[in-house]
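User: Could you walk me through two proteins back to back? I'd like the raw sequence and the structure tokens for each, with a short line separating them so I can tell where one ends and the next begins.

Assistant: Of course. Protein one, sequence then structure:
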Amino acid sequence: MTSGFDPASLVQSWPMPSKPRPIVTFGAGSIVGDAHFPAYRKAGFPIAGLYDPDQAKARKLAAEWNVRAFSSLEEATAVEGAIFDLATPPSRHAEVLEALPERAVALIQKPMGNDLAEATEILRICRQKNLAAAVNFQLRFAPMMLALKDAVAKGWLGEIVDFDAWLALDTPWQLWEFLLKAPRVEIAMHSIHYLDLIRQLLGNPRGVHAKTLGHPNHQVAQTRTSAILDYGDTIRCALSINHDHKFGRRHQACEFRVSGTEGAAWLQLGLNLDYPRGEPDMLEIFPKGGSDWVSVPLSGAWFPDAFVGRMANVQRFASGEDAELVSSVEDAWNTMALVEAAYRSSAAPATPLAEKP
């Protein structure tokens, strides 16, 4: 290959902790059984148990995974040296964080509260209690995204000048009961992953132009979003998201196009196609100096491997093996600020057309 590009050299996984701590999970929803516990078992992380106020639900999931179901919040937070894994709805995060011991280590399910005000309160609690807390923006740790980040860092794309996210999907929102009546859904619960990843690659934008809306065929608050992130006069960044493309697989899509001054990348986020079964993730790169697209063999998938990497970083930060806590609450607050700005933009009136003279 004339460019010298070796796809096998790209980093796709996070280093494992040498002595993982026990994990206490709060919540017994589908995300725990579909992603958290499969990831932790795959990585060999010890699961101390789980707590959910719905005790029947907690016992059922605990039995499926042969772990302990704690009988109370107090019992769960009393586990010494634990990593506290909050797989709770955003409205419950603050309550659980308040119950944690001082200087505890926590991983908080995204979003960081229902809105920026709740995110700010969560940040205040974490600061007050000296918690080492991160938000579970695990897309950053998916093998394809770690490889993309490594390719960008090694200069294979040059300077990024274009980022496109294009989704045309049939998303089964009914899997998440608490979302069916939530006032904020698409950006706050789904596209937040993409906004966070874009922030990691491109930094904070100057602002955002966005419109998010529902669909006449159902009552979910928002399932379709168009957004442009303002990075000045060099970088173009746009998202086109449609979760209501219910017309068969043929023309559905879930992909990113990332173009630089000297190369480009194309990614398929396979999980969202036929969720939760999904299709394969894909990454192809047209490297600097190359003459064609190169397929990058991936060592894993978004689910569950991104959850392995996400927890590995938390574990290694707790033990001093990692110097940086990726997506710490201090950094994640900025993603929440971007989400808030997108909702404000959507609610603002558009510039009207001139009237014909």
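----
Protein two, same layout:
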Amino acid sequence: MEQPLNLAAAIAAAAEALVGVLDPAGSRHQMTVSPTQLRVLSLISARPRTNVNRLAELLDVVPSSASRLCDRLEAIGLLRRVADPRDRREVRLVPTTAAEALLGELAQRRHRAVGAVLDRMPPRAQHELLLALRAFGQAAVPAPADAQSDIPARTA
């Protein structure tokens, strides 16, 4: 199905608007934590068995850079390094209670900020947005490798 020419541009503009709503909600937290540090905490919180090498892969940086980020987070009490009980040679990254509280507060602020924007939209538009976002999310999930072989290659 051919998409309207301005659909991708409209999505990009909506993403920029969303960032404009989310960023101020995150900038009022009490600790001085950079957006990158918040991202690290979010990644680690969502992936309990993360080590420095896996974090580096997720961030697309070299392990030494990921390790320095962890050093800074550890120094301000938001991250702990703990030995993996299954393999003591492995060191896992664990967000502290303070980090979890910070992420929870940030999520609440962002939820309220988005809610305020949604309140300015008519209920019908909110429902259509919900359906469209669900469809977009499903389409964004990569198809299994064997299913993709049935899809003809697109050429430029």
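The chain has a mean pLDDT of 86.

Let me know if you want the two compared in more detail.
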